[in-house]
Amino acid sequence: MLITRNDHGLNLMNGDIGITLELPDPGGVRPRLRVARRSLACSIRCRVVW
Q1: CA–CA gap between residue 45 and residue 34 (Å, rounded)
Q2: With contact defined as beta carbons under 8 Å apart, do 23 and 5 qualify?
Q3: Is residue 45 part of a domain?
Q4: Do residues 38 and 18 make contact, with C-beta atoms less than 8 angstroms apart?
Q5: Contact at 8 Å (CB) between 21 and 36?
Q6: Inside any domain, residue 49
């Protein structure tokens, strides 16, 4: 994914990049999409996006 607009509340800035992962839902209803991106501290952060 590529961020095209700053969102200071989510700490996302224009030009940030990451990958989208489809992970199983613990409840088994449907897969969940998560976005993983590298933070400024060089750690990987994931966020549920759907």
Answers
A1: 10
A2: no
A3: no
A4: yes
A5: yes
A6: no
